[in-house]
Design goal:
By secondary structure, the chain is α/β, with parallel strands linked by helices. The chain folds into two domains: about 1-150 and about 315-345, Quinone Oxidoreductase, Chain A, domain 1; about 155-295, Quinone Oxidoreductase, Chain A, domain 1 (Alpha-Beta Complex). Helices cover about 30% and strands about 25% of the residues. It contains twelve helices and 17 strands. It has helices spanning about 40-50, 50-60, 100-105, 145-150, 155-165, 185-195, 205-215, 230-235, 255-260, 280-285, 300-310, 325-335, and strands spanning about 1-5, 15-20, 30-40, 70-75, 90, 95, 115, 130-135, 135-140, 175, 200-205, 220, 240-245, 260-270, 290-295, 320-325, 340-345. The strands form four sheets. Strands 3, 4, 5, 8, 9, 16 and 17 form a seven-stranded mixed beta sheet that branches. The protein has a six-stranded parallel beta sheet with strand order 12-11-10-13-14-15, sandwiched between helices. Helix 6 links the parallel strand 10 (about 175) and strand 11. Helix 5 (about 155-165) crosses helix 6 (about 185-195). It is globular and about 60 Å long. The chain binds zinc ion. Zinc ion binds near residues 98 and 101. GO terms for molecular function: oxidoreductase activity. Pfam families: ADH_N, ADH_zinc_N. InterPro entries: ADH-like_C (IPR013149), ADH-like_N (IPR013154), ER (IPR020843), GroES-like_sf (IPR011032), NAD(P)-bd_dom_sf (IPR036291), Zinc-ADH_QOR/CCCR (IPR051603). Keywords: NADP.
Length: about 350
Amino acid sequence: MKAIVFSEQGSTEVLQYTDVPKPTLDTNEALIKVEACAVNYLDIHARRNRPEIEAKLRRGDTPHILGSDIAGTIAEIGAAVRGVAVGDRVVLAPCIPCGICSDCHRGTENLCDTQELIGFQTNGGYAEYVKAPAQNAIQMSAALSFVNAAAMPIAYLTAWHMLMTRAQLRPEDDVLILGVGGGVGSAGLQIAKLTGARVFATASSDEKLERARQMGADVMINYKDRDFSEVVLDVTKGRGVDVVLEHVGAATWDQSIASLAKNGRLVSCGVTTGNIGTINIRKMYQKQLTVMGSALGTVAELRTLVHLAGRGKLEPIIDRVLPLHRAGEAHLLLENRQNFGKICLCPNI
Ligand SMILES: [Zn+2]
């Protein structure tokens, strides 16, 4: 089969479009014919310098195939597989949990210490075929395109778990979404609008904010012009917002905390600008603030999201679709932040 592979980490030059053997299946696995695979920023880190990938390459499991957000059709199933059949249209849950630890048993498998991410610890979807445990395959409606489905797992699952499961967003809430032009930000905007909440959105350009306005954002804030917390407090007449969706880290932490109303909840899933932030403990307890973390989400949540997208309630933003062999170009677009929405690779175009 054709695949994009790499045997050493580095620039996009290391990515090679070549022939590799089709994966062989264990009894509980399914082989998926990839129709679309979305590119994530994690793919770029993996290609450049993530130590987990370096270790995998050093072990001799070369070459590595990236790609965690995958949609396609089932081409083959192992002897023990039940519940899905050859020909089913599916989207893959990106994580493979151990299935036997206490977190897995509680249904919070996103906390499993030994879970693997498809395309990271295992070979992924930058290929004509990928294998995965059959329980990762979520059947999807014919109304949902492969490209839209592939754009969902990581970004929408992260945003849903943050807003709905962790922060318990309610229709009467005001919610601040940082970096609305990114994958998690734009997914968060759509999910927040579904609940009826009022959305404050930040971005670095008026062009991105105009896109956010068209998608339903209520208050647009260009953080290059002004501290976003000042705008939040002005618009809310000093009250602040009920929920902050935070994924930036050190650079925005103080403003995110300052934007919170009484009983406000800050939920964080990322620290692209640094790990350390401080908090005024007195203000925290006086205002009854909650600061919480969030890590991807569960298969049950992804089923909910695939269902909502199949009914047209969520519409992933697709920047462009490229043939698989142009994966390097897709990485450069993402690295240079030239995209608004997801870039998807398709082996069959
Ligand atoms: Zn587990």
